């Protein structure tokens, strides 16, 4: 039984390119992001086929998922979309340039909002809040599919995926804040029957 789980952060978005806080805002992929997603799909050709895909309610993740599935020849695969996998909500920071935010609130404060586990930006979510919605969805909807032997693709966002990686890799809150996910780079997990990780591979396209 394969118990395959592939996590992929969406390709670069227009707002990533412009160095803006994105959160629940809904920009499209940049041209580079489209190419990243396609390259990820090509890197996954020997890993699939997949039985089901999960993605967020945001366009950049959905588009990435679609492009990956197109490259592996699985257009039309069952794809479940849910806000639980959305990016962390950056609240009042959403749409602001990160350098402008540092000028407004100070570099130390912005660093704390971005990199701490439990401190919320004004009007937004902490990473702990993101874990609190993403992890139950993983446990209730995604993990049972994987443990049942299905090959599962999850195309989502840096912080929602870090919420899952925190558990998969057995990281502490302090450990996960230092983890960075590159856009468009698949992470391939194979799980044991008890849901712990048997192997992990990062596929750099």
From TrEMBL:
**Which residues participate in substrate binding?**
9-16, 22-23, 60, 87-90, 98, 114-115, 158-159
Q: Which GO terms describe its biological process?
A: gluconeogenesis; glycolytic process
* SMART domains found in the cross-reference section: PGAM
Pfam families the record matches: His_Phos_1 (PF00300)
E.C. code: 5.4.2.11
CDD domains per record:
HP_PGM_like
Q: Where is this site: Transition state stabilizer?
A: 157
Q: Pathway it acts in? A: Carbohydrate degradation; glycolysis; pyruvate from D-glyceraldehyde 3-phosphate: step 3/5
Residues annotated as catalytic = 10, 87
Isomerase is among the record's keywords? yes
The record's section on PANTHER family has: PHOSPHOGLYCERATE MUTASE
SUBUNIT field: Homodimer.
The protein's matches in HAMAP family, at most eight in alphabetical order, are given as: PGAM_GpmA
Family, according to the entry, reads as follows: Belongs to the phosphoglycerate mutase family. BPG-dependent PGAM subfamily.
Task: Identify this protein by name.
Answer: 2,3-bisphosphoglycerate-dependent phosphoglycerate mutase
